Structure formats: structure tokens, C-alpha cells
Amino acid sequence: MINECRYCGKNVSSLKPEQKGQHLMSCKSNPNLEKINKKRIETRSKNQRLKNPIINVKLKCLYCDKEFKILVIKSNYERGDYRKCCSRKCSSQYSHSHLDLTQKKNSKCKKCGQIIKVSILCSDNIYCDECRKSPKKADTSDTAKDIRKRKRKIYKNGVYLCKYCDKEICERPNICKKFTQKNVYELYLGFDLSKKGTVEFYNEFDRIVNNLKKDYYDDELSFTEIGKKYKMNYQTVHMLFKNLGLSARTNSEAVINAIKNGKQIFDNLNPYPYKSGYHINWKGEKIHYRSNYEREYYEILDKDKVNYEIEKLRIIYYDTQKKKRRISIPDIYIKDLNEIIEIKSKWTLDEINMRDKIKAYKKLGYNVKLMIGEGNKNFFKNVEEIRY
């Protein structure tokens, strides 16, 4: 590893590999600093989301004709989805301006049923003067829990039985309670309603739950994919898992799962300020490169007409520095030789992290070739090749 900056001579041995590379690119003594900064600005401007910018619009209040300014997303402004009054007071008065507030309407008292005249703006849920003044009586009605419990029972042969499991005392009462969402199970998940009210009810319920577990845990589908499979929206799937007590993935676990299964594409993502773009290989296929080193090696492989794949593998390894499982995406994979090729610069190489990755590669039976070079010119003439 290099421990001294080639431009300013500063000692960088205490820095991490990525910090060394950052210092090299941002060093004030670097003769190419202006070009690098210009490239950074161009890359950032391309990657920014400029489709829906926030614009400053000057409007006129519909009620008081006062001019005011608002910040609104451009697409919302084009379809008219923005506030048109300067305040809530003006908005309320404008919405009622077409009504005759002196007009009355007939309404029924919620308690005694007497017909009373009220303002046109009043709701129908209203009491008359006498009922409003009378003292409230104690509520002796059943609780909501009692009502729900009674709805789950059916009278049969002189005994109250559960209308789901057909038993006087439910063996698994939590399931009978959860089946209140019967429309979800019936319409989307294919629950056989002929099993309702029989001893086969629990078996049918378990079949539905096992299908969901297989989709989510075994097949590693996301909530969105499960929703597409069963024609449900995301919120319904989320509430269903919550009611069934099935644990969902965390955000980091979901990202790892998407990367591992190739659902997240990195072709247009380049977090480093190095040159990136697309290369046409000898088969005429368009492939992405993240540095000039990778592009030059693609050209070497193309001359020999080697069958190679770019960033196709997803390999889980244990990062001993961050103390957690991560996913590695190797640079090049040659299927005929079962060989993984990693191309790294001396300035950005993290030896400990690379050692962790190679350990996982070898455990899965891959041959590994690590190529370490320095400098933009003649990278592969002075490159160091290490085979594992």
C-alpha cells in the first residue's frame, strides 16, 4: 500500500483506503484538480432528479384578491393540485360563498327523533334543545368486545358454537378472532369457505398462512411482489402480516435481499468520481464499466473473445470490520474457468475487506484472481496479479 501522497508528499498511512483515494483526487497539488471538479459537477447534475423541481409561483387569492407566493412541485402545479387562497379563513369563506347561510334545513334529533330546523351547515348527527339539556344515563349496553364475541357464535342443538371452528370452546381462539378479515382470505388468498364451520377450518387457515410464509421467507418475495401475486395492495399485505404475527424484514435486510436476488440494478450508479460509461463487447452487448481500468481489461478480454459476465454474481460474506453480513458483487466472472476477477487500485484497495470477500469466494468453490495496479496510464503493464 502507498503511504505518501504523490503530489503534496503528505503522510496518509493512517487513513482508510477510500480516504487515501479521496485525498489523491482532491489534493490541491493535483494538476488535474480542475478537470476532476468539473467532472464531479457534471455527474451530480445528471444524477439529480430534475423531472419534478419545486417552483416558486405567484398567485392571486380567489376570495380577497391578495397576491401571495407558494412553493409547489411542477407536476402538481400543471394539474392544478395546489392551494388557491392565501389563508384558511379565505378558503373557508370562498367555499361557502355560493351558499345562503340564512337558509335552514330539517334534521332529526339523534335521541328522540323529533324534527328540528337547523343551519344548512350543521351535520345530521345533532340533538334537540331538550335532549341536549337532559342528564345522560349510564351506558348499560354490552361492550364492543361482547358484541364481537356474540357475533362469532351460532346456536345449534341447544348449544352456542363458534361459527368458524364449530366448537363450543375454540381451541385456537386467536385464529377465530383474526378471521374477521374473511374478505381478504376469501377474495385474495383462495380460502375454501366450505371448510368454515367444520373441524377442517384450522387446517385450511394453516394452509393459507404456510403459503404466505413460503412466499416471504423461502422464495424471498417482497410485500410488493406478494401483493402483485395475490392482487392486493401493499398496505393490505402489511396489515395481514401484522395481524398474523409474521415478522417483516428491516429496511437494511430488504435492501440486502433485493441486491442478492438481482432486483436492484447498479448500472447507472457510480458513487466514486472516476470515469464510468458503457462498453460494447465482442458479442455486441452493451456493458457498464466503473473505471478506465475495467474498460481496458474488457478490451483485453474482447481481443481473446473470452465469455465473461459483469457484476452478475451476488455473494454473501461476513465483514470482520463492520461485524455484519454483507453482499459482494464481483467485477468480472468467467464462467468457463469458474473464475472471479477483481480489479482494484492501490489507492482504494481495502485489504481486510478484500480478504473477507475472497474467503467467501473460495468457500463457494470459485477461482479468484486479484489485479492490483497504480496510475491511469499503463495500468496493466505494471499490474500485480494474485491468484487464490
Key features of this structure:
flat; five-stranded mixed beta sheet; 388 residues; two-stranded antiparallel sheet; alpha+beta; single chain; 5 domains
Describe this structure in words.
- It is flat and about 100 Å long.
- Strands 9-12-13-14-15 form a five-stranded mixed sheet, covered by helices on one side. Strands 1-2 form a two-stranded antiparallel sheet. Strands 3-4 form a two-stranded antiparallel sheet.
- It contains 14 helices and 15 strands.
- It has 388 residues and is an alpha+beta fold.
- It has five domains: 1-48, no CATH class; 54-95, no CATH class; 104-129, no CATH class; 145-248, no CATH class; 277-387, 3-Layer(aba) Sandwich (Endonuclease, Chain A).
- It has helices at residues 17-26, 33-47, 74-78, 88-95, 129-133, 144-151, 173-178, 182-187, 201-218, 223-230, 234-244, 251-260, 292-303, 351-363; strands at 54-60, 67-73, 104-108, 115-119, 153-156, 159-162, 277-280, 286-289, 309-310, 315-319, 324-328, 332-334, 339-345, 367-373, 384-387.
- Helix 10 packs across helix 11.
Give the SSE layout.
Elements: H1 17-26, H2 33-47, E1 54-60, E2 67-73, H3 74-78, H4 88-95, E3 104-108, E4 115-119, H5 129-133, H6 144-151, E5 153-156, E6 159-162, H7 173-178, H8 182-187, H9 201-218, H10 223-230, H11 234-244, H12 251-260, E7 277-280, E8 286-289, H13 292-303, E9 309-310, E10 315-319, E11 324-328, E12 332-334, E13 339-345, H14 351-363, E14 367-373, E15 384-387
Parallel strand pairs: 13-14
Antiparallel strand pairs: 1-2, 3-4, 5-6, 7-8, 9-12, 10-11, 12-13, 14-15
Helix pairs in contact: 10-11
